[in-house]
Design brief:
The chain has a 26-stranded antiparallel beta barrel. The protein has a 16-stranded mixed beta sheet that branches. The chain is built from 4 helices and 47 strands. It is mainly beta.
């Protein structure tokens, strides 16, 4: 937040009465109106006197000057219609919405808009600014001067912090000039902490170029850290930030963030980082690029490119990664880059994309299959010649490419016809049948076993029947929960479903394998399951209100009449795993997500993942995440926030790899949250990696924030539970 914002706001309030406006005055039975070619300003007072020779209005006692949402109150006021000078004194109060200026005396020329206020106090609601000044003047167009002023965003009479300045002069605000502050001092309580003989800052109302506040930290492995940045607003629709971070023994890491928004639908950003790592003795880099653009005739293009020089970069500099790339790197152990574009119609879609994957589990990416390009065309379900039948179509062309191994071109065409219907308005029934043609042309097989043209023709058919049972409960039956979430009625639904899928046995041995579409299993399978929902109706209807789904439970399983299922241990089974999904969304108190696959033969879970977040009225929070995929992933993550005394919060995070039987990281933090400032300390204890390529590291950093003015450093993401 910049000083010029409150300067502008205060003078805007001060001079809203300076326009040449009609005047309506009231004093008992006295009323005077003077036309001045614009909207009226109403003046009311206990006593109103007009001196004809001097052309002056004198108002005394409970004076009020109003125009629209703006108002001025004072004990006394004088308006000279000849010189256009307005003077108000004695408990002067100006209001604009929730913003307020109090002063002892106001002097302003309503034509030139030049003037002065004395012993002023200003409160700006949006920024929570409290400003005082012995004297504030408007000396000319975009030229201001304030003497003996102070600024804070604290509501207390004795603020925990404030800035004071002997004199602040601002020139050419609209043209991007500078403000000169004489003797600025930063106070903690009443103790001066920082003093400068003078200071200069830009005062343009738009974004400002300049150095960012440095951030400091410490790594027990690499030493002290100092992170600096320079922000460059070189155009209205573009800006850039240059980073120069000193990372102790590692050396200097440089970075660039470039953002642009040429139109509302054509925008993006690029982040680039580079370091000549003095510990690993090699150059390391990363770049992350996002772009979206709309073309004529509703064609669109989007891109998301993520690349790192080495896989260790993700751990050493994880703060550089965009959120989406960070999730992929942890959950799917890959970085994905994709460029795609196309066009959507009411019943059809066209998509052209290219996807490149970086497999983080392998040292070399030469064997990883890339899709360059993939062209798809879809016809969404729609009526077939205005009959009860519906048709849809999925078609694609894909080029599978990689540095080493079999490559291929694949064409896939899958049209379907479906017939939805209802029995007695109770049972829902839908059947479908489709023919699928897949054609391959393979090449670059080093074994020469897979090459030339191959094709596969198959059929897929199925049917599904379901119904719905429901019951409505009055919210008074569970009044405490209903009142907490402001729900008047609850509805519980049960939706049993049974279906059948069939796909014949076809020869696929000579076909290459790139993804799941290359092996369509012989399917003769019955599926069955049940879905339950808990829906609440709000007590009061509003614009965005309506029934809200607070919970959902879905359980389903398959039984194979044809080829058996193969479980994770390689055993053949007639019944599939029992798959389940559960989520609760009782925010802000409880939210949970759960998904699992239970092996009925082994009596254990092959997959079990859940995430639970709970909060209380004190704003304490606990989040527990567990991820378990048999033989692949087993980990638990714990995050907690505890409020001790009113302003003090303790944070903690724990990461543990159950599969390797080792701790990944412990993170601890403490934050003091006052009304107008906060400060925190974070300690990270990162363990070595399982393969011992990354050693143990301890890191420390501090951060603080002044309300609506800015911050130094930032809190870790887990503190924002």
């Amino acid at each position: 937040m910049r000083y010029h914002r409150f300067i502008l706001s205060s003078f805007f309030l001060l001079f809203i009465v300076t326009y040449p406006l009609p005047v309506h005055a009231k004093a008992g039975e006295v009323s005077v109106t003077k036309e001045m070619k614009a909207e009226p300003v109403d003046i009311e007072a206990d006593q109103l006197i007009y001196e004809k020779e001097a052309q002056t209005y004198q108002a005394h006692g409970q004076v009020e000057v109003n125009r629209g949402n703006f108002s001025l109150k004072a004990d006394h006021a004088q308006l000279n219609m000849a010189t256009k000078e307005l003077v108000a004194w004695g408990n002067v109060l100006l209001r604009e919405g929730e913003d307020v200026i109090e002063c002892q005396r106001l002097e302003v020329n309503i034509e030139s808009r030049l003037g002065k206020i004395h012993q002023a106090k200003l409160f700006l609601k949006d920024q929570n600014f409290h400003i005082t000044g012995r004297e504030a003047e408007k000396l000319g167009e975009n030229h201001y001067r304030i003497r003996d002023s102070s600024l804070t965003t604290c509501d207390a009479k004795r603020p925990p912090w404030k800035f004071t300045v002997k004199e602040l002069e601002v020139k050419e605000m609209a043209l991007g000039g500078v403000g000169i502050a004489k003797g600025p001092i930063f106070y903690l309580e009443d103790i001066p902490v920082l003093y400068f003989p003078w200071g200069a800052f830009p005062v343009r109302q738009e974004r400002q170029s300049g150095f960012l506040i440095p951030r400091a930290g410490f790594s027990g492995k690499y030493g002290p850290e100092l992170k600096n940045g320079f922000y460059w607003a070189f155009a209205k629709n573009m800006d850039a930030t240059f980073y120069f971070d000193w990372l102790g023994d590692r050396g200097v890491k440089e970075g660039l963030e470039y953002r642009y928004a040429f139109t509302q639908e054509t925008k993006g950003k690029a982040n680039l980082f580079f370091i000549d790592d003095q510990v690993l003795h090699k150059n390391r880099y990363a770049f992350f690029i996002e772009h979206q653009q709309k073309f004529p005739y509703d064609f669109y293009f989007k891109g998301d490119i993520n690349h790192v020089s080495d896989h260790k970069y993700l751990r050493d500099f994880d703060e550089d990664l965009p959120e989406g790339a960070k999730i992929d790197s942890w959950s799917t152990r890959q970085l994905r880059s994709v460029l795609f574009g196309g066009k959507n119609w009411d019943g059809f879609s066209f998509l052209l994309q290219g996807a490149v994957y970086d497999d983080l589990t392998k040292e070399s990416n030469d064997d990883t299959v890339q899709k360059l390009p993939q062209i798809s065309f879809y016809a969404h379900p729609q009526s077939l010649f205005k009959t009860p039948l519906f048709y849809d179509l999925a078609s694609s062309y894909t080029h599978f490419w990689r540095e080493r191994g079999v490559e291929a071109y694949r064409g896939d065409l899958f049209p379907r016809i479906s017939y939805p219907m209802r029995f007695f308005n109770v049972l829902k029934f839908e059947s479908d049948v489709g023919l699928r043609e897949t054609v391959y042309r393979s090449y670059q097989d080093p074994t020469d076993k897979v090459h030339g043209w191959k094709s596969r023709e198959t059929l897929e058919a199925g049917m599904e029947m379901s119904t719905e049972f429901y019951r409505v409960y009055d919210g008074a039956m569970v009044s405490k929960i209903s009142n907490l979430y402001k729900v008047s009625k609850w509805m519980h639904t049960i939706e049993p479903t049974i279906g059948y899928r069939f796909s014949p046995r076809v020869s696929q041995r000579e076909l290459p394998i790139f993804d799941e579409a290359d092996r369509i299993p012989y399917t003769n399978e019955i599926t069955y399951g049940i879905t339950q929902r808990l829906v609440g109706k709000p007590q009061k209807e509003g614009i965005s209100s309506g029934p809200y789904e607070y919970g959902k439970l879905k359980i389903f399983q398959g039984y194979s009449v044809g080829d058996p299922f193969i479980d994770a241990g390689g055993k053949k089974r007639s019944f599939s795993n029992i798959q389940g999904e559960l989520w609760w969304n009782f925010n802000p108190t409880v939210s949970a997500r759960w998904d699992a696959e239970f092996n009925p033969y082994r009596g254990s879970f092959d997959i079990l993942n859940f995430l639970i977040n709970t909060k209380d009225r004190r704003n304490d929070a606990v989040q527990v995440q567990y991820r378990n995929t048999r033989g692949d992933v087993r980990e638990i993550n714990l995050d907690a926030r505890v409020k001790t005394i009113a302003p003090l919060y303790l944070f903690g995070a724990f990461r543990y790899n159950l599969l390797e039987g080792m701790r990944v990281a412990n993170i601890y933090g403490v934050e003091y949250q006052a009304q107008c400032w906060s400060a925190g300390f974070v300690f990270e204890d990162k363990n070595r990696s399982p393969d011992r390529t990354l050693k143990k590291e301890l890191k420390y950093h501090v951060y603080f924030n002044l309300l609506n003015l800015g911050s130094v450093g930032h809190k870790p993401y887990f503190m924002n539970l």
